[in-house]
Amino acid sequence: VSTTMRVEDGAVRRIVFDRPEVKNAMTAAVATELADALEDLDPATHDAVLLTGDGDSFSAGGDIEAMSEREESATEAYERVRTTLGRVASNILSAPVPVVAKVNGDAVGAGLSLVAVADFAYAASSARFGASFISVGLVPDMGATAILPRLIGLRKTKELAFTGKLIDAESAAEMDLINEAIDPAELDARTADLLETLQAQPTENLGLAKEAIHDNIGQPLETGL
């Protein structure tokens, strides 16, 4: 039984980070569990995925204490990130159902990357967002360097990645990092409404539309057609 993440399966697969004592920081084990939970989705039985956190944080990103205890080469570190956090991003982007992030609190580092790669992101207005990798000597991971420039633009991506500063939920909504900043008391209801709307749609068609949209990013019009 996982002690780092809860997975509640059903028509909506609910994935909850439950390490509130460390602001839901992700170890390699958590990332592996998350990638696994995003891998066997079937539009015949699943309508959507919901990602959220316990406590007052969505995710503080990678577990810095766990990182500091590792003894590994740069090549080993790259392979670990590729097969854990990289696999999470890949599985979200290729998932045949919509993936919704309910951002209940701060999303920092890999937590911000997770918000960026999700298909929808609704956040509590009290949440803050930061690409804080630079502050701990890291480079953005979990697909952030690929998806953020497409989502929020090149200059905003560099601003976040180079400074590590925190922005509020309203600013995140204005730059299209999230869909909407919502009063914390209304976040559950607003997310439930979205999931109800998605469940009313033909799931296989949603997956096909998602695949086509992703495949056509950056493609010339004729290729897209």
Entry keywords:
single chain; 225 residues; alpha/beta
What do you see in this structure?
- About 45% of the residues lie in helices and about 20% in strands.
- With about 220 residues, it is of the alpha/beta class.
- It has a six-stranded mixed β-sheet with strand order 1-2-3-5-7-10, sandwiched between helices.
- Strand 2, helix 1 and strand 3 form a beta-alpha-beta unit.
- The longest helix has 13 residues.
- The N and C termini lie far apart (about 45 Å).
- The mean pLDDT is about 90.
Question: What is the distance, rounded to the nearest whole angstrom, between the alpha carbons of the first and last residues?
Answer: 46 Å
Kindly report the average pLDDT value.
90
Indicate the radius of gyration in whole angstroms.
17 Å
Structure class: alpha/beta
Work out the helicity level.
40-55%
Q: Low-confidence runs (pLDDT<50, min 5 residues)? A: none
H/I helix tally? 11
Summarize the structure.
By secondary structure, the chain is an alpha/beta fold.
List the SSEs and their pairings.
Layout (H helix, E strand, L loop, with lengths): L4 E4 L3 E6 L10 H10 L10 E6 L3 E3 L4 H5 L5 H10 L1 H10 L4 E5 L2 E3 L1 H8 L2 E5 L3 E3 L13 H9 L1 H10 L2 E3 H6 L5 E3 L4 H13 L3 H13 L5 H4 L1
Parallel strand pairs: 2-3, 3-5, 4-6, 5-7, 6-8, 7-10
Antiparallel strand pairs: 1-2, 8-9
